[in-house]
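Postdoc handover notes: sequence design on the structure in folder B. Input tokens:
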């Protein structure tokens, strides 16, 4: 008896090791045979052996079909090394299968920050080369960082479609997810920057700065505050001062990386929308001759870059922005803004990206900004809450909808009161939908810069 068991083990021990699995067609065939077996058992009990024989035959067909399907000679996954958050990213799967394989499918497991909840299935189609099957899936990264493609599953069926071969392998493919810089590459911004520099020559730019450049005769329409009364008295004629336009201003983009900024707006966290807008404005500022830096904080300060002087240092800002993490905690504005104030040695423009849900949560923020605005020019940027607006405008068809609308209206009023407090303190405020934040920020930056209010 023991010799017989050893023989069976030697003959069929390889079956469990084969990566063969039944297909959906085989499952439906088994389900169809079950009523037939009951019918045979009821009509002719002595023929009960037919049912297990049919089941064994079906199992043998599944195994044989899987064996005929052949094996995979080569498989590979191609993915880009870098992509940007919110921008499409294509991952390709290629497999070289023996002749006879049919309906190949693949599945990928990857970091959830790449989108699609960390898993994707795709159908492979024949390529130009015989036996080569290929497929692609488009991912939409949802968060910055490094997302890994960790495992590949591959399955293909035999000619009958009853048995399938299935293999899997671990992967070490990594995709670096950078901030979205599509606004920087946009034709509108590039055209604006090109037109801004058209005709520029190597000379001092006269404007309304603080450094004296020259005297010119006063003409009607000039600002009377520019009249140099002493020079006018000496020459018995009105003269106006022309100052050199200020450049080399310091611009700091400060990011609240706390809980409120981690909340999504139209599919992406607010912090990612803010980073994209800030980097675009930083690029414009570097083109204009100003110096820019990034500062990120949550419970404590996280990132503080040195000031960058020209566009050659822009990749340093991009890398620092990519390292800003998502932290579901309440931010410590007191510590963060006090640290920022201590690091700034001269008057600067501080562009603060933040958000809040109620006046209580914003109280410490307002208090900290009030101390910051005494030494620096502060521009507060927040996203308009489209969800609150939709709740307010919703028709109150029932009690639940009415209660939600009233609550949303109360929150919107409280939010407006906080922004009014900031404006009374001398803080410039931008509140706009995320689509308009970038260019609203650039317009406000140019208005502040041209007014010479930073230095």
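Designed sequence:
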């Amino acid at each position: 008896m023991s010799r017989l068991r050893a023989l069976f083990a030697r003959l069929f021990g390889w079956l469990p090791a084969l990566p063969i699995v039944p297909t959906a067609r085989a499952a439906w065939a088994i389900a169809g045979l079950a009523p037939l077996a009951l019918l045979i058992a009821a009509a002719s009990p002595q023929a009960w052996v037919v049912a297990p024989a049919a089941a064994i035959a079906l199992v043998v067909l599944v195994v044989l079909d899987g064996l005929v399907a052949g094996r995979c000679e080569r498989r590979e996954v191609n993915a880009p090394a870098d992509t940007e958050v919110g921008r499409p990213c294509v991952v390709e799967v290629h497999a070289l299968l023996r002749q006879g394989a049919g309906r190949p499918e693949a599945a990928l497991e990857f970091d959830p920050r790449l989108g699609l909840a960390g898993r994707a299935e795709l159908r492979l189609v024949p390529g130009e080369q015989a036996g080569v099957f290929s497929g692609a899936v488009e991912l939409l990264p949802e968060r910055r960082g490094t997302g890994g493609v960790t495992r590949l599953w591959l399955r293909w069926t035999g000619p009958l479609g009853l048995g399938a071969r299935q293999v899997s392998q671990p992967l070490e493919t990594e995709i670096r997810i950078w901030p979205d810089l599509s606004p920087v590459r946009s034709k509108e911004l590039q055209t604006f920057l090109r037109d801004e520099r058209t005709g520029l020559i190597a000379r001092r730019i006269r404007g309304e700065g603080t450094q004296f450049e020259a005297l010119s005769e006063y003409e009607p329409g000039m600002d009377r505050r520019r009249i140099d009364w002493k020079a006018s008295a000496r020459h018995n004629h009105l003269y106006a001062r022309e100052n050199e336009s200020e450049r080399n201003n310091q611009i700091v983009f400060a990011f609240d990386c706390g809980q409120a900024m981690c909340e999504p707006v139209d599919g992406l966290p607010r912090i990612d929308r803010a980073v994209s807008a800030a980097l675009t404005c930083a690029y414009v500022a570097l083109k204009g001759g100003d110096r820019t830096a990034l500062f990120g904080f949550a419970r404590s300060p996280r990132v503080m870059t040195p000031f960058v002087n020209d566009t050659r240092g822009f990749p340093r800002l991009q890398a620092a922005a990519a390292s800003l993490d998502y932290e579901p905690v309440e931010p410590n504005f007191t510590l963060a803004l006090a640290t920022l104030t201590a690091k700034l040695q001269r008057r600067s423009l501080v562009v603060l990206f933040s958000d809040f849900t109620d006046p209580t949560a914003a109280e410490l923020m307002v208090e900290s900004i009030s101390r910051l605005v005494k030494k620096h020019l502060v521009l507060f940027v927040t996203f308009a809450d489209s969800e609150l607006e939709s709740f307010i405008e919703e028709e109150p068809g029932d009690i639940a909808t009415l209660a939600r609308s009233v609550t949303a209206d109360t929150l919107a009023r409280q939010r407006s009161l906080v922004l009014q407090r900031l404006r009374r303190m001398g803080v410039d405020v931008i509140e706009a939908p995320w689509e308009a934040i970038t260019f609203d920020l650039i317009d406000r930056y140019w208005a502040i810069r041209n007014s010479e209010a930073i230095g």
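Context for whoever picks this up: The first strand starts at residue 20 and ends at 22. Don't rerun without checking with the PI first.
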